[in-house]
């Protein structure tokens, strides 16, 4: 500020030097132009309305006096006041022109006293203008400082936002690290589950193979046992049939013998009847010895016939009892064999169905665990992929 004041173009000494350098002819021309325009500037001309100032600044160049080299030297105040608003520049130019006009008028009048007063007024004007310029500069600096403060506030706000974002990123980074640890644990659990699933599949396959082997072996053993029992029962039935056939053959032989004896008895009866007839015809002279012998033979034959009949009846009853017992026993053994075979077949079928159902349940559980493990593995893969993407994004943000 001090440098600018020392080097300022609006000092009173500078203005007086410029006025002294003007010639009388130039001053007269300047007065004539001002009189033609009807403008009389005084000390209060600086308080003119903005409309008059704009009219004066916007006057056409035709009404201005011709500029010489001295007049062509423009005050630096105009260039210095360019950053200020248009109204301030126009006001400064008007003030400068008014000062010059007053100085020219005072010089042309030739009155030294009034010239001194006017020079004092000019100095006062210059000081006032310098004060105004200083106030404008201070206002400008204040506005700049306000802008700087505003910019600093904005920057501090942005810095706070960046700090908050950095804290959020740090929290996200910590969360990502935690999630990475969780994902690593889940991956380890998934690997363990996968290994356990493989072991379970192997065990299931081994159990299925063992069940198949055990079932087939047991069934074969039971079938062989049933076949052996059936063979034994068939052998028993064959033996019983053979004994029955033997007994039946013996019975037929005995029956034939009985029939033969009956035929013999019938022959003997016939002979006896014939002999009785002969005996009736025989004279009384014949000996009684022959009759007694014949009667004795007849009695013996009758007793033998009765005994044979009794024996035949007993044999027939025994044969019928044996046949009934054999039939009952054969039917019973056949029925028991059928029942036992059906029972064993049913038990084997039930065990086979139970084993099949158990195998289905194991297979269903294995498939379900496999699907769960696959789903868990997919979830872990997606989480790891998301975490890797977030990690890359976070690394890019850190860069």
State the CATH architecture of the largest domain. Orthogonal Bundle
Rg computed from alpha carbons, rounded to a whole number of angstroms: 77 Å
Roughly how many Å apart are the termini?
46 Å
Which CATH class of the largest domain applies here?
A: Mainly Alpha
Overall mean confidence score, pLDDT: 68
Number of strand segments: 0
Our estimate of the beta-strand percent is under 5%
Biggest sheet: strands, sense, closure? Answer: none
Number of domains: 2
Uncertain regions spanning at least 5 consecutive residues: 1-10, 39-87
Secondary structure: helix percent: over 70%
Write the H/E string, N to C: HHHHHHHHH
Count of helical regions: 9
CATH topology of the largest domain: Helix Hairpins
Q: Name the shape in a single word.
A: rod-shaped
User: What would you call the structural class?
Assistant: mainly alpha
Keywords: Coiled coil
Biased composition (Acidic residues): 26-40
Coiled coil: 152-347
Biased composition (Basic and acidic residues): 49-73, 114-133
